[in-house]
C-alpha cells in the first residue's frame, strides 16, 4: 500500500542535519526525494567517514533519497536543475542567505519555472533582521535562543551545550516535514504553490515553554531581571552570577523534585516522573516516605515542616538505593507511577518494547551492507509509512535522474567528463 505522499517528488539542496532530516521524514511518507549534493559530497558524508564518502551521520539522515551530485557553480548544472524543477512538487533548501540567488536556486527563480512549486527555505535566523545574513549551527542557535542558558549546565564558568542531541536541528526537521505536508494540502485546495520559511531560531524558541510573558504578571519581573543582567555584565561578573539571577526568576523549582528525578538503585539507575498531586501521593506510598504536604493540616510556614521537607530528598535517595531497579519498577507499575530504567541507546536496538512497535527497520546499503536504525516516527493504518531504501552512495542515481530528464547517454558522459556531475 503506497504511503500518504506517494507521487510527490521533492528536490533537496540540503546539508548537515535539520533539512536532511525533514526530507527523510517526507521520504518515509512515500515521496520521491532527489538530493543535490556538491561533487565531493555534502559535508556530513565526510564527517567521521568509516568508508570513503560514507559516515554514520549521513546514513542516519538521508535514507530513501536519490543522490545527484552537481557543480552548481557551472551554468550547465543550473540548467539541469531548472529542467528538473519542472517535474518537482517541493524544493527544500538550507543555505547561507546569499547563496540561492547566486546559484539560481532561489524561490523567485524556481517558482517562475514551476508556479505550483512549494519551496521550503530553512535558515538559522530568518531572512529578515540584523542577523539574517549569518550562518548558524545548532550550538550557535542554542546560545542565541536561550536554550543553552536554560539547561543550567556550567563547566569552569562556561555554559555547556545541550549535547545529547542537536535539539534545534532535529526539531526544525520535524517543522519542515510538517509545513511541507500542510502546504501540499493547501495546494490540493487552491492549486497554488507557496514559499515556506523555517528557522532554527524560531524552532528553538517554540520548544521552550518559558519563552512567554504575562503582561500583567511577569513583565515587570522580566524587565527588572534585564536591568540586573545589564549591571552584572558591565561589572564583568562571572556567568554563574547571571545564571543565578535567571534561576531566581523561575521561583522555587525543587519543591517536588523527589517525584520527578533520577535515583540510584541497588543495581542501576531509575527515573520517576510524577507531574500531578495524585501521582506524587502514589509515589510517596511506594517509596515509604512521610511527606507532610500530603497530610491533613499541612502548614507550609511551619519551620519544623520546612526542615522535614528539605530532608526528604536525602532520605529518599537512601530508600531507593536499598532495592534493585527491577523491584522498584514492579512496585511503581503496580501503583501506576510513571517510571523507567536509565538505558543507553545502544541497548534499544534489541529492546522488546521498541521491536514490538516496529520502531527499528533493517535496510541494505549499497556499500555499508545491512543497517538497523530507527524507523518512521509515526504509524498510519491506511497509508503506512516505510523507509524506501538506505541512504545513497554519492552519485548512485545520477544516470537514472538525468536519463529521466531526457539527457542521452552521450550527454551524461559529457557531464561527468566536464566535472558537472559524478
Q: Which secondary structure elements does this structure contain, and how are they paired or packed?
A:
Layout: E1 9-13, H1 18-28, E2 32-37, E3 49-51, E4 54-55, H2 56-61, E5 65-69, H3 75-85, E6 90-94, H4 99-103, H5 107-113, E7 118-123, H6 138-145, H7 147-150, E8 154-155, E9 158-159, H8 167-190, E10 194-199, H9 200-206, H10 219-234, H11 239-250, E11 260-264, E12 269-273, H12 277-287, H13 303-320, H14 325-335, E13 339-341, H15 352-356, E14 360-365, E15 369-374, H16 398-404, H17 409-417
Parallel strand pairs: 1-2, 1-6, 2-5, 6-7, 7-10
Antiparallel strand pairs: 3-4, 8-9, 11-12, 12-13, 14-15
Helix pairs in contact: 1-8, 6-9, 8-9, 10-11
- Helicity, as a percent range: 40-55%
Can you tell me the CATH class of the largest domain?
Answer: Alpha Beta
List low-confidence stretches: none
Structural class: alpha/beta
Question: pLDDT average, as an integer?
Answer: 95
CATH superfamily of the largest domain: Crotonobetainyl-coa:carnitine coa-transferase, domain 1
CATH architectural type of the largest domain: 3-Layer(aba) Sandwich
User: What's the N-to-C terminus distance?
Assistant: 34 Å
> How many beta strands in the DSSP annotation?
15
Number of domains: 3
Number of helices: 17
Strand content: 15-25%
CATH topology of the largest domain: Rossmann fold
Cα shape = globular
**Rg from alpha-carbon coordinates:** 26 Å
Sheet with most strands: strand arrangement: 5-2-1-6-7-10
Question: Main sheet?
Answer: 6 strands, parallel
